[in-house]
Amino acid sequence: MDTATFIRVLNILEKEFPKWNAPVVSLMAKREHRTPFQILISTIISLRTKDQVTAEASERLFKLADNPYDMLKLTEEQIAKAIYPAGFYRNKAKTIKKISEIIVKKNSGEVPDSLEELLKLPGVGRKTANLVLALSFDKPAVCVDIHVHRITNRLGFVKTKTPEETEKELMKKVPVEYWNRINDLLVAFGQTICKPLSPLCSKCPVEAYCEKVGVVRHR
DNA sequence: AAAACGGGGGC
DNA sequence: GCCCCAGTTTT
Known about the structure:
[4Fe-4S] cluster binds at residues 194, 201, 204, 210. This is Endonuclease III. Keywords: 4Fe-4S, DNA damage, DNA repair, DNA-binding, Endonuclease, Glycosidase, Hydrolase, Iron, Iron-sulfur, Lyase, Metal-binding, Nuclease. One of its GO terms (biological process) is nucleotide-excision repair. This protein folds into two domains: 3-21 and 141-209, Endonuclease Iii, domain 2 (Orthogonal Bundle), CATH 1.10.1670.10; 34-137, Endonuclease III, domain 1 (Orthogonal Bundle). The protein is built from twelve helices and no strands. The protein has helices at 3-20, 25-29, 36-45, 51-64, 68-73, 76-83, 89-106, 115-120, 126-137, 146-155, 163-173, 179-192. Helix 1 crosses helix 12, helix 3 packs across helix 4 (51-64) and helix 3 runs antiparallel to helix 9 (126-137). The structure holds a DNA duplex (11 and 11 nucleotides).
């Protein structure tokens, strides 16, 4: 698949997006109500966790503390209890506490707005850093999670082993003005149609363009 | 490169 | 009961 076709796919998916009723609660539907700190913390909570669970856990935590100063006053146990159903709660609580401390003590209460600085925070990798850049600061960023990695390979647009390779390829092949649309669209698409194991190809609006790399079963 | 971190939900 | 989920860090 070439770049022009990939962009055509994005355009089609964008039109179909409202029909999917994808469970994008915490990071997309409410982004305009959230501070950069809340986006960052929600993203930490979302690691390997379903979106609905992430949303509920975030709300519980933000009722206790929605800014780094208040968050720093909570104990790790309090944070862990609030986010418990999201899983990895001890690691995440520790990470959230450390991040709050760094933001308060070394960055005058502000979330960093550059990739380099975000990556220095504990528990923040490329996916989280790029998502914060895109959602909080409206900067162009290619945010590659498991959905983006799977779908771009399945379409035949990239041939990569790791999400990091996928990120590099997408930055190379896709014009910058499309970067911030990739993640939202492909995640929603992956949650509803282009599923990991048994994608619903008969309902897929872009099946005609797809090379179905690695797809063994479909419906 | 592989393990560890984890409860919840789908089937 | 078994497998997967908007990943990152450590071994």
